[in-house]
């Protein structure tokens, strides 16, 4: 039966990419570490590493297993701290990169709560209309809307979230046919940096009459149009953003309903940082709770 101690050995080799480099961390000799990895692969019936003279490289399955094991390690560390009554607070600076929607409508509340528990911690929110480059250390961790497919990164799914077509509350939109002639608010087409943000493809619209690379600007444009009942605008809006826009309502919910996901992405070399692990656990749980809370307000 696979035990946590096996996962500890697996994680050490995955991080060190070498038996000889993992051995002193584990306080074992390299031969023993190698036997433990061979035994683990045998028990699971899978290949976790590609062995070569250059070291141990993770297979695709091994990389996925590493991410789950690292998440479990972080959660276990936090649980042990809480069980011991450890009240050590986070300090220093931590920067989070995020797309506009998360940066504007989720992270301020979540980070404020984390900051309240850790008054000596400086949290920076980096909102960019593109994918944050963790390899260049633009941020310590990032929220993304797609799971990265390249790079030495750890990826943890945070939560699904929902989006619907929104319009001013006075607008009379009861069918897809009512959308003809309506002004559409959306992304600047050639500045969509992730395929998951191409909402108009789901909507079947040919173009937009009011465009921005910022979700917050799109929401403000819809709010501004609420005063013009003769020429209302419509656009795809995150459900979690709607509590901040009381002039808007969801329309055609059965015809237009999208689901996307947020992922928490970190650089692989940061997995051994207890400080970042603790912050990531708090950020992950805080984001899940805040998405749920805001979506319930418009349910």
Report on the biggest sheet: 9 strands, mixed
Count of spatially separate domains? 3
**Silhouette:** elongated
CATH architecture of the largest domain: 3-Layer(aba) Sandwich
Order of helices and strands: HHHEEHEHHEEEEHEHEEEH
Query: What name goes with the CATH superfamily of the largest domain?
Result: Periplasmic binding protein-like II
Task: Give the mean pLDDT.
Answer: 85
The top-level CATH class of the largest domain is Alpha Beta
CATH topology title of the largest domain = D-Maltodextrin-Binding Protein, domain 2
How would you describe this protein?
By secondary structure, the protein is α/β, with parallel strands linked by helices. It has 3 domains: 4-83, Arc Repressor Mutant, subunit A (Orthogonal Bundle), CATH 1.10.10.10; 92-159 and 261-297, Periplasmic binding protein-like II (D-Maltodextrin-Binding Protein, domain 2, 3-Layer(aba) Sandwich), CATH 3.40.190.10; 161-259, D-Maltodextrin-Binding Protein, domain 2. It has helices at 4-16, 19-26, 30-44, 60-83, 100-105, 107-117, 199-203, 215-225, 274-297, and strands at residues 49-52, 55-58, 92-98, 121-127, 141-144, 153-168, 183-186, 210-211, 233-238, 248-251, 257-267. The strands form 2 sheets. Strands 3, 4, 5, 6, 7, 8, 9, 10 and 11 form a 9-stranded mixed beta sheet that branches. The radius of gyration is 23 Å and the shape is elongated.
């Amino acid at each position: 039966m696979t035990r946590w101690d096996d996962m500890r050995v697996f994680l050490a080799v995955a991080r060190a990419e070498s038996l000889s480099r993992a051995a002193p961390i584990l306080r074992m000799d390299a031969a023993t570490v190698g036997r433990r990895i061979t035994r683990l692969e045998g028990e699971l019936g899978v290949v976790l590493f590609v062995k070569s003279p250059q070291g141990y490289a993770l297979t695709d399955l091994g990389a996925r297993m590493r991410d789950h094991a690292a998440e479990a390690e972080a959660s276990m560390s936090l649980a042990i701290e809480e069980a011991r009554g450890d009240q050590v607070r986070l300090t220093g600076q931590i920067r989070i990169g995020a797309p506009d929607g998360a940066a504007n409508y989720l992270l301020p509340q979540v980070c404020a709560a984390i900051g309240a528990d850790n008054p000596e911690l400086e949290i920076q929110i980096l909102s960019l209309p593109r994918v944050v480059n963790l390899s260049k250390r633009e941020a310590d961790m990032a929220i993304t809307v797609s799971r990265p497919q390249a790079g030495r990164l750890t990826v943890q799914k945070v939560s699904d979230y929902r989006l619907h077509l929104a319009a001013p509350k006075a607008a009379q939109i009861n069918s897809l046919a009512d959308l003809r002639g309506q002004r559409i608010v959306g992304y600047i087409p050639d500045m969509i940096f992730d395929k998951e943000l191409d909402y108009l493809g789901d909507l079947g619209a040919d173009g937009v009459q009011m465009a921005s690379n910022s979700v917050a600007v799109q929401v403000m444009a819809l709010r501004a149009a609420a005063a013009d009942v003769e020429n209302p605008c419509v656009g795809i809006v995150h459900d979690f953003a709607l509590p901040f826009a009381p002039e808007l309502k969801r329309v055609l919910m059965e015809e237009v309903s999208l689901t996307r996901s947020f992922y928490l992405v970190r650089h692989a070399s940061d997995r051994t940082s207890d400080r970042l692990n603790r912050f990531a656990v708090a950020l992950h749980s805080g984001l899940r709770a805040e998405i749920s809370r805001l979506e319930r307000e418009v349910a």
